[in-house]
Amino acid sequence: MTPAPTITVSPIPQFDAPDEPLTAALHRAITDHGERVAADFLGATITYRELGEQVARGAAALVALGVQPGDRVAIALPNCTQHLAAFYAVLRIGAVVVEHNPTYSADELAHQLADSGATVALVWTKAVPAVLEARERTALRHVVAVDLAHDLPLSKRLALRLPVAKARRTAAAMRGPVPAEIPLWHRLVAAANPLPANHPQPAPSDVALLQYTGGTTGTPKAAVLTHASLVANAEQGHLWTQHRRGQETVYGVLPFFHAFGLTLCLSYSTRIAATLVVFPSFDPALVLAAQRRRPGTFIPAVPPMLDRLVTAAEKSGVSLHSFTHAISGAMALPPATARRWEAATGGLVVEGYGMTETSPVALGNPFDASRRPGALGVPFPGTEVRVVSQTDVTLDVAPGEPGELLVRGPQVFAGYWQRPDETAQQLLPDGWLRTGDVVRVDDDGFVLLVDRIKEMIVTGGFKVYPSQVEDHLRDMPGVQDVAVVGVPGGDLGESVVAALVLRDGHDVDLAAVREWCGRKVARYAVPRRIVVLPDLPRSQVGKVLRRVVRDQVLALPAA
Predict the structure, then answer these.
(1) Strands (E), 359-444
(2) Predicted confidence (pLDDT) per residue in 186-207, tens digit
């Protein structure tokens, strides 16, 4: 007889996911807080009532371009007010948003655009050339350019025209040349009549978003996220933070085209009728300028962002004490970073865990004294987790032992777009999602990350988890950052290599690394080679790309 699975349930198990589309939260915010500032983009503001008007006109403009319910509309934009409005305009007519990194190459965009079957693309002016180059390989009927400068305050827009070097540099960074035949989004919106209020709304079960993922381990594939799963995750976050509706100010420093930024900044802000302070990219100087103008209360970020903000605030004398809550994700939150942030703000910072396939948050640390920097946390409201054998997902591991994390909850995705085989591998018939992460659960119920299954190194028949070696090496004098990877190692199978970023003025050799590691890690996990890199490649949200590090190591001479 198979033993009953060991299931860890959220400390807030009772959770009734709202039965509504993602657009319902925007409608409530307009009704209840219409004159509240919805977005602040470098000082230019828009109220919820004005945002609703833009969404209604944008939706009508999309209908005029032939967009029907279920059609995919690509958005390739940095963070800006028009990104926020376009996102909800697409959803309002029952179409599907497909988010893209606007800095991708033509080939990268071509793959995603062709895969999704998008018929319309709303594209940053600087990305228009890449999309046009890719267009012949896609189903695109219309490409519409979005000018970021249009979202600036009037004074800053006028300043871009000044015949001075600084203005020319700023203008070149914000906008690019657009062929005459390509329409501008803000002009289409201004010319459209608002979509009638009685236009059919999307259903909660409808697909809202295709979010590409898996780029660090293979060809990117689109996670299918419904209105219901995205609404559930935003509401789970609200229960977790206990934020006040209509009173918070959220700092949008994470890119909206990434699952972390899209939910924690864009949709969550609307759910609680917050003011979203929008940044086109992460720049501590811009963030501190906004902090002087419109102090924030909540910031979702990655640890390096928090560190850089504290350093910049200390140098400039800007207070961060308005921030009561911060949530960190995409990588482990170092205890030192947590201490710095909490000392600088007087507020709390907690670590969360998730993936695109969970909309994206599945676990989090409580916003109270029980928080544990370095731990993934405990299940989100209405979420269950299991830890199972890495070779047989039907077998639960013993308490405290490492195993693969499985997640089940209302925020779990519907599968991969047009990839039934990969969906079946990841999403089990009973609703459990295989995360591919190795974890263990401690005696207090906190989930601790061991490593990614796909990034585990097998050397001489032994399993080496890179994160455990990296955590030890980061404490080594002279080491600023590290990534541990496996490369072909002859009879060993794989050889452990440490890619180091050194602190200024320091030198570290292999003998020192091996001696340092030999004190804490198993002999087979001690690096057999080191390489020194000027920096580590990272994703848009700061996660180290071990696959890219491995490629860099393989390209170097073996000596």
Answers:
(1) 361-364, 378-379, 384-388, 403-408, 433-441
(2) 999 999 999 999 999 999 999 9
